[in-house]
Amino acid sequence: MAIETFAWKAAGPSVQGDTTLRVRAAQFGDGYKQVAADGINNKVQTWPMKFVGTEARIAEIIAFVDRHAGFRSFYWTPPLGVQGLYRVPKYTPAVEAGGVYSFSATFEQAFAP
Question: Can you list the alpha helix ranges (DSSP code H) found in the chain?
Fold first, then answer.
């Protein structure tokens, strides 16, 4: 199965992601602390996203995410970033006012060998 690309644009004027720089540390009794990167991919991003639109648009997004079942990664380009692999393990669909629907999820960065 080829890796698919998530191409829908998020709603709202503002999107905020979170970057975690994972490290391992060992604290010694004399006050010295040794710190090293936690693996070769120690920079990990998560992006809480919200998509708003018609029932058909939101249904397409849900079908895409369901097809990946929370464990298969897909290509996605975050704001201010470069295309990478991401997963969506959990999402929340909602009915807004006036026949408008929404889909909220956190995109979690994934890595491939």
Answer: 55-68
